[in-house]
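User: Design a sequence. Structure:
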């Protein structure tokens, strides 16, 4: 059998036999092709043929640079084009530098800005740098860093280098960390999280971060390497980053004395021994390591008097918090999401400066004492969605947080994710303007074999900060949007109350909606008021006949562009579903439609013009696809190549 194996961006020899790949032999037809930035690796891999990917010739480099800067900027002053050519020459034909600096200069339209750019690039001294990438590229890429307007943005950028290569960084997580580190301004004890989002946008515009989707960003590996170089060599910040390095123990604890930020994410560290003396350490990231509660030294955290950020998330063998955490009196951000921790002990009350607490997906969590929550008086961020802890539920005789009053008392709270699983808790939530106003993720989930949820008609208020909404309870028959609190008069006989001005989008930030196991729900027309919806998942809704009701849309005023931002639509086990929408829609962003066990859905809202040049993947069962009805044969032919079978 002949094959071609591609290995991209390798930095050291890969032992093919060890990873189970037969070594290709000349004359047999199989090929191994790899890319690397090191000629030494070519020798170590015993490459039979080396192909040097040269930098661009001057004319091609100038052509690429002009495209990235744009004609409008180049023509904004008679002398800018000549200066731009000189700046492009300083990039030495390197595409990454041409693209990065070209984009950074695309908004610079004054002669002084271009002269400064030329001066900066020409004065970079690389004699003290390591050979190769650092010598040729970092001083050039550092131009984008130097262009950041202040030290705050520079600190926020360098912080992103603590995550592993190609890691999808959650935007809200970055903002939580920046808040705890003191990078963000606070007014009367509350951080404006919009400042964090604005910083992320600035870093994206500067091409120092890349946007993955609405929730995630990432850092190019070369940009990340440059950031670590800047942190250690230029800014003299003591960063130690050993992520995804297969470490089985924390490295060189005796040398942690001057470390300021330490990231050991994605390793295999099971134990933490000793009591490292690190009085300057502010951030410690231990996510996804397999840490075991019984193998954590009691005094490990004893000498970390300055620690403000601690991430212990995704350590599935962590069943209780290390005792020494109570010594972290400066701690402002604690992330224990994705662990098997069963309780938060009252001793954590010593963490009086805590501003961000992440308990998400702690499925074994049973107890959080009310007094403890009351004691976190400075808390601004509380993430407790998808936990084993449900509002208004007592477990094993211990009241976890039996009422929502303890959350109401957190006057600085401005970001909340929460799971609610009873009528009483839902009633308390719906009566609290404070909690509604700061909720970003809301999970209304009925517990297995539990009758605490009996609500049939849910009147949901507009929540302008809500990003994720998930329903999972069998009693709900109808969902209404209660506009009365918005001061509007309802003038429709249709049950779904939507007689409002179309321009006012009250779920503007809602990105994800999951409707699970709601067998009595007939439609979810209310999602028309979520103009930025990216993901819609509907499953096990046995009486649902429509996604968007024709009569519901008719009751609205103004023009609505439905599903304008939708990227993924999933409908599974909705046996009575007959319609997604009556007419074909224009899907500007849609990537995937997945339909399973929806035998009565004979039409999907697609026409020849729906994709707008995009490839929309349609997944479903063969019989369902064969029985689909289309506007015409050309519409079917358009999407036939994109159909994929699911089983």
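Assistant: Done.
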């Amino acid at each position: 059998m002949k094959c071609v194996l591609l290995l991209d961006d390798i930095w050291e020899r890969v032992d093919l036999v060890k990873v189970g790949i037969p070594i290709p032999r000349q004359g047999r037809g199989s090929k191994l092709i790899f890319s690397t930035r090191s000629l030494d690796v070519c020798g170590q891999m015993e490459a039979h043929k080396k192909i040097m990917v040269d930098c661009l010739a001057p004319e091609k480099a100038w052509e690429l640079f002009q495209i990235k800067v744009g004609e409008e900027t180049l023509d904004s002053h008679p002398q800018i084009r000549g200066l731009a050519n000189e700046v492009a020459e300083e990039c030495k034909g390197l595409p990454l530098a041409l693209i990065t600096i070209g984009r950074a200069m695309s908004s610079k339209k004054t002669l002084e800005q271009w002269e400064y750019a030329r001066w900066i690039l020409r004065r970079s001294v690389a004699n003290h740098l390591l050979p190769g990438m650092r010598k040729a590229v970092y001083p050039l890429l550092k131009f984008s860093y130097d262009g950041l307007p202040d030290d705050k943005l520079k600190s926020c950028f360098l912080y992103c280098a603590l995550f592993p290569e190609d890691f999808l960084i959650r935007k809200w997580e970055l903002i939580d960390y920046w808040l705890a580190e003191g990078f963000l301004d606070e007014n009367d004890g509350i951080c404006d999280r919009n400042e964090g989002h604005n910083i992320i946008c600035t870093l994206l515009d500067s091409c120092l971060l890349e946007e993955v989707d609405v929730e995630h960003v990432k850092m190019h590996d070369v940009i990340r390497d440059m950031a670590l170089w800047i942190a250690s060599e230029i800014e003299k910040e003591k960063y130690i980053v050993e992520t995804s390095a297969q470490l089985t123990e924390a490295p060189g604890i005796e040398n942690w004395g001057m470390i300021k930020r330490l990231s050991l994410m994605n390793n295999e560290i099971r134990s933490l021994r000793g009591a490292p003396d690190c009085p300057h350490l502010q951030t410690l990231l231990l996510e996804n390591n397999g840490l075991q509660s019984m193998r954590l030294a009691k005094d490990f955290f004893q000498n970390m008097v300055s620690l403000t950020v601690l991430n212990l998330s995704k350590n599935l063998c962590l069943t209780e918090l290390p005792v020494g955490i109570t010594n972290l009196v400066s701690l402002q951000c604690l992330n224990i999401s994705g662990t098997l921790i069963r309780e938060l002990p009252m001793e954590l009350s010593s963490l009086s400066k805590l501003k961000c607490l992440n308990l998400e997906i702690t499925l074994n969590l049973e107890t959080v004492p009310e007094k403890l929550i009351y004691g976190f008086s400075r808390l601004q961020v509380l993430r407790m969605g998808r936990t084993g802890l449900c509002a208004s539920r007592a477990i094993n005789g211990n009241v976890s947080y039996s009422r929502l009053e303890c959350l109401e008392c957190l006057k600085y709270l401005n970001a909340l994710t929460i799971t609610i699983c009873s009528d009483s808790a839902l009633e308390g939530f719906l009566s609290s303007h404070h909690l509604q106003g700061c909720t970003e993720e809301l999970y209304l989930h009925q517990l297995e074999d539990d009758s605490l949820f009996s609500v049939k008609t849910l009147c949901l208020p507009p929540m302008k900060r809500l990003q994720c909404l998930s329903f999972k309870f069998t009693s709900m028959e109808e969902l209404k949007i209660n506009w009365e609190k918005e001061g509007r008069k309802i003038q429709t006989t249709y049950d779904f109350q939507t007689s409002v001005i179309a321009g006012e989008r009250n779920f503007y930030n809602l990105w994800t909606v999951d409707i699970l196991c709601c067998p009595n729900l007939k439609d979810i027309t209310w999602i028309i008021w979520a103009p930025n919806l990216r993901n819609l998942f509907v499953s096990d809704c046995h009486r649902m006949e429509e996604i968007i009701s024709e009569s519901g849309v008719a009751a609205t005023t103004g023009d609505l562009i439905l599903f304008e931002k939708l990227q993924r639509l999933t409908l599974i086990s909705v046996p009575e579903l007959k319609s997604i929408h009556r007419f074909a829609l224009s899907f500007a962003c849609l990537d995937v439609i997945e339909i399973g066990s929806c035998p009565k859905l004979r039409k999907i809202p697609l026409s020849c013009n729906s994709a707008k040049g995009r490839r929309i993947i349609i997944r479903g069962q063969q019989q369902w696809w064969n029985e689909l009805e289309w506007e015409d044969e050309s519409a079917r032919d358009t999407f036939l190549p994109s159909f994929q079978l699911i089983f």
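The mean pLDDT is 84. Residues 77 and 111 are 7 Å apart (CA to CA).
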